[in-house]
TrEMBL record:
One of its GO terms (molecular function) is metal ion binding. SUPFAM superfamilies: Periplasmic binding protein-like II (SSF53850). The keyword NAD does not apply. GO terms for biological process: molybdate ion transport. Molybdate binds at S43, S71, A151, V178, Y196. The keyword Transmembrane does not apply. Keywords: Lipoprotein, Metal-binding, Molybdenum, Signal. The lineage of its organism: Bacteria, Bacillati, Bacillota, Bacilli, Bacillales. This is Putative molybdate-binding lipoprotein. PANTHER family: MOLYBDATE-BINDING PERIPLASMIC PROTEIN (PTHR30632), SULFATE-BINDING PROTEIN (PTHR30632:SF0). It comes from Bacillus spizizenii (strain ATCC 23059 / NRRL B-14472 / W23) (Bacillus subtilis subsp. spizizenii). Belongs to the bacterial solute-binding protein ModA family. Residues 1-23 form the signal peptide.
């Protein structure tokens, strides 16, 4: 009798241990560490870093790895198969190219925020420029390369609409992204620069002297989407939805973005 009891006890103990191991394994699997790569326009860097910090605090198994740059360069990277889970573009045409090519599904995309184009000068300098109207008085003007930098494309549109492009095109120093343009102005290497309002607001070394009216350029919209080839669809979808939340939008608005 004692022997049978011992065998039964051993069997039950083994069963409970196995169940416990299985439960622990399930917990481990559900909390596995995941790194998401977000390819994002350089102009969104400051807002995104704060948003991601908040998100990672609440999702300790998730790490957001950023890949910042011009939207055109990032779009080409994704088209060529570079690893990315989400794409946050500052240009609709660059984003639409990925949708048309099947790299991002339309159902996994949304227009997230908007922005504005402004003219800035060094804060402590003696730039001759006081507004777009006398931009031709400058010797050097910084602008993002229009073919790959959305802020540069919008800026060129505005300058053309204002009948200024032909007067200033030979004075332009091109930047690989909007942050480089901002840097040129901050260091006084140019008299003025055309950047997003969000970039101007985070710098203590420049001042905004004029804003491009909305009717001088195409609507500035930042689309967000999940890359079709993501290996972490569940986690990417959750972060995609968080970026649209009220909590995230408050941060975007704090940095000067407008809700779409």
């Amino acid at each position: 009798m004692f022997k049978k009891y011992s065998i039964l006890t051993a069997v039950l103990t083994a069963f409970l241990l196995a169940a416990g191991c299985s439960a622990n394994q399930s917990t481990t699997d559900s909390e596995k560490k995941v790194t998401l790569t977000l390819s994002a326009a350089a102009s969104a860097q400051d807002a995104l870093e704060e948003i991601q910090k908040n998100y990672e605090k609440e999702h300790q198994n998730i790490t957001i790895q950023d890949n910042y740059g011009s939207s055109g360069a990032l779009q080409k990277q994704i088209s060529q198969g570079a690893g990315a889970d989400l794409f946050f573009s500052a240009a609709e045409d660059k984003f639409q190219k990925l949708v048309d090519d099947g790299d991002i599904a339309k159902k996994d995309s949304t227009d997230l925020v908007g922005n504005e184009i402004v003219l800035v000068v060094p804060k402590n300098g003696d730039s001759p420029v006081t507004s777009f109207s006398n931009l031709a008085d400058s010797e050097k003007i910084a602008l993002g390369t229009p073919e790959s930098v959305p802020a540069g494309a919008y800026g060129k549109e505005s300058l053309t609409k204002l009948s200024l492009w032909d007067k200033v095109k030979d004075k332009i120093v091109y930047g690989k992204d909007v942050r480089q343009v901002l840097s040129y102005v901050e260091t006084g290497n140019v008299d003025a620069g055309v950047v997003y309002k969000t970039d101007a607001l985070i710098s203590k070394k420049v001042k905004i002297i004029d804003e491009a009216k909305a009717d001088t350029h195409s609507p500035i919209v930042y689309p967000l989407g999940i890359v079709k080839d993501t290996k972490h669809r569940k986690e990417a979808k959750e972060f995609y939805e968080y970026l649209q939340s009220d909590e995230a939008m408050k941060v975007f608005e704090k940095y000067g973005f407008t809700a779409e």
